[in-house]
Structure formats: C-alpha cells, structure tokens
Write the structure tokens for this entry.
Amino acid sequence: MYHLYTRVIEPGFFASAQVHAAAVIGGAVAVISAVTGVFTVLRGQSFGGHALTDVSTAGGSGALLAGVSPVTGFVGLSIIGAGLMETIGIRRARGRDLATGIVLGASIGLGALFLYLDTTASTTTGATQQILFGSIFTIGSGIVPVVVIFSAISLGCIALVYRPLLLTAVSTDMAAARGVPVRLVGMVYMLALAVSVGLSSLAIGSVLSTALLIGPAAAALRVTKKTGRAVVVACLTGTGATWLGVLLAYDSYYWSPGHQGLPVSFFIVALVLAAYLLSGLAATRTATAARETAVPAVSGPGR
Amino acid sequence: MFTGFMINTWAAATIVAVIAGAVGFFVVLRGAAFPAHAIPKGAFAGAAGASLLGISTLAGLAVFALLGAVGIGTLGRRGRHDVATALALVMMLALGAAFLSQTTEYEPEIYSLLFGEVLGVSSTEILPIAILAAVCITAVIVLYRPLMLASIVPEIGEAGGVRSYPMEICFLIVLAAATALTLPVVGALLIFSLMTGPPAAARSIASRPLLAMSWSVAIAVITVWTAIACSYLCNWPVGFFVGALSALSYVLGRSWAGWRGTRTTHPGTPVATLSHT
C-alpha cells in the first residue's frame, strides 16, 4: 500500500515549499478564473479574455523596463486594454472581435518593443520565456497578499452585478428593455475580467490563464444550464485540474531517467481539455437520454 | 538599405504583406480575428517541436498550423466557436512549453519566431515562401466566390449549394498555409496585426469587395515597407512598427469612414444606420 502511495505521490511532495505556493496561488487563481470565466463564455468573449493575457504581458515587460512592480504593469495595462476594447466596442460580436484584435495587435507591438529594450538594457536571459509562459513553480510566496486582494476586487465586481450580468449575457435587448444599464454592467464585468486575467497571467503565465478561464467554465456550462451551479462546477474543475497538474508535473521529474520534468502548464492544460471533451460526452448522453424518455411519454396517449 | 541581403528581405516581406492583406480580408469579413491570432501563435509551438526533432522549422510550423486549423474546425462544430479556438490554442501552446522544456538551446530563436526576423532572410528561404504564397493566392482566387457567399449570407450560400462547414475548414486551412509562410518573417504574433489592421481599414474605405481587398493588400504592403525602413534606420524590432502602423491604419480608416459618413449623410436619414447593420 505504501509502495503504491509513493508511486502516485513522489517523496517530498508535501514538504516542498514550491509546491505549497503553487497549490495555494494556483487554487486561488483557478477559482477566480472559473467565476469570471463562466460569464466570459456566456457572453462569448473568450477572445477578449485571451487577448488580455497578451496585453498584460506587454504591461509586464513594460514594468520591467520602467522599474515598477510587475503587478502594476500586468494589472494596469490589462485594465487599460479592457477599457479600450469596451470603448471601441461595437454591439455586434464580429465588430467586437475586431476591436479586441486591434487593441491586441497594438499591444503585442508594444510588448515586442519593451522586450527588445529589456533584453538589450540588461542581460536577463530567460526573460522572454518567463514572461510568455510563466511558471507556477517560480512564483514566490510574497505574491500571496497581492493575489488575495485582487481576487477580492474581481469577485466583488462580479458579485455586485451578478443578476444584471446574467440578464445581459442571455439577451442584451431584453436586459435593456428591463432597464438594465447594459454599458455600465459591461464595463464592470470587463474590469473584473481585466483584474482576474492580469493577475493570473502574472501568477501562472498566459497559457494557463486562458486555459483556466475558458476550459472549466465551458465544461461546466455544457453539463448544467443553471449558472449558479455552473460556477460551482467550474471552480471544482479548475482547482482539481490545477492541483492534479501540479502533482503530475512534480512526479514527471522522476519519470524519465534524465530527470527532465515536463512543465506544469502542459499537464493542467491537458487535464482541462480532457474535462471539456468529457463534458461534451456527458452532455450528448443526457440529451439522448432525455429524448428517449420523452418519446414514449408523447406517443403514450395515442395507444 | 537596398543592397545585398536586404534585397531578400524586401522580396520576402512584400510577399508576406500581399498574402496577409488578401487572406486578412476574409478574416475581417468572417469576424475570424481569434482564429487568425490562435493559429500563428499555436503554430509557433510546432517550430519548437521541429527544433527538438531536428527537422526543418517550416515543416514544424506547417504541421502545427494545419493541426490547429483542423482542431478549431472540429471542436467548433459542436459547441461555442470562441471556446473551441481558445482551447485549441492553449493546447498547442502547452505542447510548445513541453517541447521547450526538453531542449536548452532555443532562447534567441523564440524571440525571433514570436516577433519576426525580417532582416535576416536568406535567399534559400525565398523559394519555399514564394511557392506557398502561390498556393495561397490560388486558393483565395478559387474560393473567392463561395467563401464570400458563405461569409456574408450563409443562408443564401447554403441554398446555392455552398455548405458552411466545409467552407469554414477550407478557410482555416488557407489561414494555416498563410501562417506557416509568414511566420518566420514577421513572427507569430504580428501576422495577426497584419491580418486585421489593414483589412479592417480597407473595409472602412471601400465597400465593394474586390476594391476593398485591393486596398487591404496595398495598406499591408505599405505598412510592412515602412516598418522595415524604420526598423533598419533605428534598429528597433520590426514587430513594433508593424503593430503600431496596423493599429494606426485602422484608426485612420475608421476616422475617414466617420468623417465621410457625417459629410454625405444628413442627420435623420436612415443611411447612417443602414451602413452599420
């Protein structure tokens, strides 16, 4: 039994300080990503959610150059970017994607410049990869208070506009007819998204940021139609994938003889994608089951 | 600026700009900005894989670009399209991160693949670029009418025998080919700027499709030429100039459309609202 246990959880897993930080921060980020993600998926703004990771990354390299704290760079530019997208914002989805794209393109250009100046100003090798992919294992525990504060801001924004946000996500016209300030609600939501994405790109890197924002939420929305329940399912899926991914990445160090571990992001993304595909299967099965039970009920009285 | 190795640069960049302008026109028309961003960015992971296996970078890029296109197409068929694109993208990037973790000597190449290395094109690279470009242009010409129909009025297209889903896959594959070709030159992240900024600007200038496409190509070419010249003169990355100029062209195009709109339409006439629907 003990043998099996050490097979699954390699020695030193629970003692490692890096694992502690990764589990705590990864878990917290997974939760706020899942909550904002449900609305991102409902509103069809996955592109915006992903674009903000690149925007905030450009902010991060700018902060490195200006010598201010990375948090300011990441979250600051993310909020500015979200504001611009929402301002150019056109009501139709196609136009909105285009506005998102233009803001994204411009900030990628800026990011290229900042990174170039960063690498010529100082010889920080690895800066490119660090900023692009990030790594959950390289974050210090000093970032924990920051994560807590910004998580609270983001969740607070969502909680504040929860009901009107749901209404606008279902139908903008209906919400407007009921007197919901659609633009204002959109702005508050974008603020929550910007803070959440800026924070997660800083803490866990842009790849994982998008994966945890979209994957768990999309999977949850395929399983259940109730938004409240979807939020809970998304949180569970997100944190589950994160913690399992951290464990697998830690173990993978022992798999190959060369001790060349695989990155955490790879495992977490693979788990998130698996959850999404499984949810598709579950959704089709319940749909067919519902149809099968419905058929005799309809044809029943005729017999 | 126009001697020796720079000749290759100008030639390659011009080909890239023409392709990006033409394919980008459909990107904007179909509102496919997200796939246009996701395919190049994900394909970049293919280059990392190719360097791990020791095969040609262009092959790695092409394979991953195609995988990305097919992945987005299949996942998007059942389920939300933007979700499918996001998930396909992160999966490719995660694979890229896994590949990179297995090699150690990749750092400078990452930067150039992401942000472009237009000033270092060799004459052996021109030929594959030109061939892929010819394929792309042919595909755009062949697909022009059905793709246009499926993009603007999918219902009428379906009625006329143009099915949306195969058209979508065709479009994504053309996008993937254009990506593999432009990526080593302008970089994974900036193809996207070139495929959205100039075509969006062109759409605000001209409403007739062929005219708008020509404008799109022209603006893309001007953007790239200016970017190379600026980059050559002040040594800043080409990517910065491409990104900034693309965004600028969009802003100018929108302002031009707005200015013309206020000049030609009287307040109260329904023309203004019609042009937005």
